[in-house]
Write a structure and sequence with these properties.
Chain lengths: 537, 327
């Protein structure tokens, strides 16, 4: 606020600001909106960037629809049943047309499944699919290598593309990631069955959509044209909204929320993002990386392997305070794995982590560290909101129990390299998001023991390991009965909580700012669903 | 003259070579392209496959040779993130940056030189001193602060100028220009001004200092003794000699303006090379990073070459020297 006042005063003297408001009435039914980064491609199968996916979702439908509350619903498939024998049967909607006017057929579905499955970005999600087989003109069987109870859930990320169009434009095969050659046609052109069609994609400048007149589904909003502009600098993005150049912005920075709210003619929409911020601690190494005694000599041990130390660290970190101070209230405290809105998430188990410095000190002493120790906390910068401040808050909280934390900030490429080429970190902050939105994915990739052969623990970067938990995962991935699954989710979450698999902090809240004339509800996947946006003239 | 040119060219090639090595090393420092392309969720097998296909598993020296070989064939590679040829990406972005830098340079000369001359000629007047004090402010204000301040005034408060982008552009052959549309011109004002403000101050201070120096020299005294009017002394005798260092500095500044418009481009979402470079750094997009550095180096080298030649035009002594050396 102080900054704003200062700017106002300065501006008044420099340019003698007149009381002209910068607002111009938006042309009816055109939505001009902005976010942080440009879409990388219009080909939905060769990106998993979440900004790109959110935009591509406007053009391409997914086989199963991802609804606004992140639950699944009928989309291109109207119904699905498990046939036994690792086979799911999907009933395909009739009368659907692609944006170029050609009708959607089961062959297009099979083509899309096999094309996206081949993408190295989607091996974790769709690598288990063996084949897709046409049953009749309106149904298709998807056969996996093993039983897959959450396959329909995963299908919210399988985008439908026209085979004939792909063939005609020579993109039947996936464009090679990073390979030599010329530009693939699907990079800047698209032909889906979604509510909007692509008019133009000018990479890095703007993406223009127009309403798809042939859309099969409901189109409750009145947007006929939408223009997306990436604006990386947040002050500029907010200024573009408040000056009326944009109607809506996603990624409203925390410090500007009050400002937008208090400006007449604007309001904000918020929703907790499907992302949990937590600290991972080395659970495997006998000698942890970058751990020292108080005199600075490397420690020939891994204190983090001792559950008493893990508990002590958890007790010493007050996530409510972090939410209040660092996140300015724009986050929801979280104490267990997963996130609100995920299938299988057990809200009642999220009772909050206790905060007790005395107890923490006692546990550390019991574990043989009465004077604490020193440790490096690896911290990814810029990727997550206020990550640097979060790490520093953690450091000062742990200092109170005698654990000296050295925060090592790294830009994302450097941080990612450390993880995927190692993983070589014993203590770090990271954000976890479920791939498909089912807690099972979190169990399998983030919490299960790292095991290449089984395809488990792919993103378990601090190598926490617990045989009891792994047994739960083994059972969960083959269990279809919902009641039994709930029981397994609860069992798994309880083990992970009691053994302190990670120190969960919070789930950040997404904020969008928009003009009062625009109504759009924020979604946890950050997608602005253009067919539902209403613009008053 | 020919020897002079060859000498310069050799230096230029050396610089380009060193930059290409540096660009190559930098790419290895900032991150791992495979981790950036595939993200955290990919399987180790997929990672390995991609690493092999991108030749990233081979020794650095060999990779550098591939890189140079492609460069010599005019192939800058394909951007990992954009999945398009880097040459196409750069071709799209260069006009925006060049137009921005050119306007900023023009502004800085058009405003800076008269200011400096005025301050030198009337150096005992209040206004001249005030202007010089103000120029210290101009030099010391960071570009992004100026940018955000301008946006706050002219976009947010007054609503006169767009806060981001380049407006409508007109395509002429391979070039896109914002000079021919109203929205293009309006979009250009604030970015060019924020980029120019530091330069205006710099040019003004430089011209003042040089002008003061020149005014003290003998030939000015003789010119006055000849009874020439002030106007003639200042503008046809003094200014001409003042211009030489200004040309040098402006030339180098143009290189800076092009290569380091990064900050301004980020603030105003100006679709130029700088913005592309920033995004590439965030994505470990090695081909784009090294291509940007190469283009920037070529720019610097090219401009320096031109500046050296301009010297000869502006300063007859240099011309005579080289001519006499040849004969």
């Amino acid at each position: 606020m102080i900054r704003t006042k200062w700017l106002t005063a300065l501006c008044a003297t420099v340019c003698m600001a007149t009381a002209i408001s910068g607002m111009t009435p938006g042309v009816a039914a055109t939505l001009r909106y902005g976010g942080t980064t440009p879409p990388l491609t219009m080909d939905p199968h060769v990106t998993n960037d979440f900004v790109t996916t959110a935009l591509v979702r406007q053009i391409h439908d997914t086989i199963v629809d991802l609804q606004d509350d992140m639950q699944i619903g009928p989309g291109i498939a109207t119904a699905w049943t498990y046939q036994g024998n690792n086979t799911w049967r999907f009933k395909i909607r009739e009368g659907v047309k692609f944006q170029d006017g050609t009708p959607l057929s089961v062959d297009d579905i099979i083509f899309s499944i096999m094309r996206q499955k081949g993408s190295p970005l989607y091996t974790a999600l769709f690598g288990g699919i063996k084949e897709a087989v046409k049953v009749d003109d309106t149904s298709v069987d998807v056969i996996s290598n093993g039983p897959d109870p959450i396959l329909p859930r995963k299908m919210v990320r399988l985008f439908v593309m026209s085979q004939a169009w792909a063939k005609a434009n020579n993109v039947e095969k996936l464009p090679d990631l990073g390979a030599q050659g010329t530009e693939a046609y699907s990079l800047r052109h698209a032909n889906g069955t979604g509510p909007m069609q692509l008019v133009s994609q000018d990479p890095g400048r703007k993406t223009v959509f127009a309403r798809n007149a042939n859309y099969w589904g409901p189109f409750p909003g009145n947007v006929t044209e939408a223009i997306y502009t990436p604006i990386g600098s947040s002050p500029t993005r907010v200024a573009a909204l408040l000056s009326g150049e944009l109607d809506l912005i996603t990624d409203l920075p925390i410090q500007d929320i009050e400002r937008v709210k208090s400006t007449p003619g604007f309001h904000i929409e918020q929703v907790p993002q499907q992302l949990s911020m937590f600290l991972e601690m080395d659970g495997t190494r006998d000698v942890a990386l970058d751990v020292f005694d108080k005199s600075g000599k490397p420690l020939q041990a891994n204190p983090l392997k001792d559950v008493r130390v893990r508990k002590a660290l958890s007790l010493a970190i007050d996530s409510k305070l972090i939410v209040q101070r660092v996140m300015r209230g724009q986050a929801v405290p979280l104490s267990v794995g997963g996130a609100y809105g995920m299938d299988g998430f057990q809200k009642d188990l999220d009772t909050g982590r206790p905060y007790d410095v005395e107890q923490a000190k006692k546990l550390l002493a019991e574990a043989g560290y009465p004077d604490g120790f020193a440790i490096q906390l690896n911290c990814p910068l810029e990727r997550y909101t206020n990550a640097d401040e979060i790490c520093r808050a953690v450091a000062s909280m742990l200092a109170r129990v005698g654990v000296e934390v050295r925060v090592k900030g790294m830009v994302w490429p450097e941080f990612a390299r450390m993880l995927v080429n190692g993983p070589s970190s014993s203590f770090h902050l990271i954000g976890g998001s479920g791939n498909s939105g089912d807690l099972q994915d979190t169990f399998v990739s983030i919490m299960a023991t790292r095991d290449k052969a089984k395809g488990r623990g792919g993103t378990n970067w601090a190598m926490w390991t617990n045989p009891e938990f792994d047994a739960v995962v083994d059972e969960l991935v083959t269990t279809f009965d919902p009641a039994k699954r709930t029981e397994l989710y609860r069992k798994g979450l309880t083990i992970a909580r009691d053994q302190v698999q990670g120190i969960y902090l919070f789930q950040p809240v997404l904020s969008w700012g928009m003009k009062d004339s625009v109504s759009a509800s924020a979604r946890a996947d950050a997608a602005v669903m253009l067919q539902k946006v209403q613009i008053k003239p | 003259m020919l020897a002079f040119l060859l000498n310069r060219l050799f230096h230029a090639l050396l610089v380009v070579f060193v930059v290409s090595v540096l660009a190559f090393i930098l790419g290895d420092v900032v991150g791992d392209p495979v981790a950036s392309i595939l993200g955290l969720d990919a399987t180790p097998a997929d990672r390995l496959a991609l690493r092999t296909r991108l030749h990233l598993d081979e020794p650095a020296v060999l990779r550098y040779l591939y890189y140079v070989q492609n460069l010599l064939h005019g192939d800058l590679g394909v951007s990992y993130a954009a999945q398009r040829p880097v040459s196409a990406l750069l071709a799209e972005r260069i006009p925006a940056t060049v137009e921005l830098a050119a306007v900023a340079l023009t502004l800085s000369l058009a405003i800076g030189v008269p200011l400096g001359v005025y301050a030198a000629v009337k150096r005992r007047q209040m206004l001249a001193n005030a202007l010089m004090t103000l120029s210290v402010l101009g030099v010391s204000l960071p570009t992004f602060v100026v940018g955000i301040l301008l946006i706050f005034c002219f976009s947010l408060r007054l609503g006169w100028l767009p806060s981001f982008g380049r407006g409508e552009v007109v395509t002429i052959g391979f070039w896109t220009t914002g000079f021919l549309t109203a929205s293009g011109l309006k979009s250009l004002i604030m970015p060019a001004l924020s980029l120019a403000i530091g330069q205006i101050a710099l040019v003004a201070r430089l011209s003042r200092a040089e002008m003061l120096n020149v005014l003290k020299s003998d030939y000015i005294r003789f010119a006055r003794a000849r009874g020439l009017k002030n106007r003639a002394v200042y503008f046809s005798h003094a200014l001409r000699n003042t211009l030489i260092p200004i040309i040098t500095v402006s030339g180098i500044q143009l290189g800076y303006l092009v290569a380091f418009a990064v900050v301004v481009e980020q603030v105003f979402q100006w679709p130029g090379m700088g913005l592309l470079f920033l995004q590439a750094l965030g994505q470990t997009d090695l081909p784009v990073i090294s291509a940007f550095l190469m283009v920037a180096a070529l720019f610097f080298v090219g401009i320096n070459l031109v500046v050296d030649l301009l010297y000869a035009v502006a300063d007859p002594r240099l011309r005579i020297k080289t001519l006499s050396a040849r004969s």
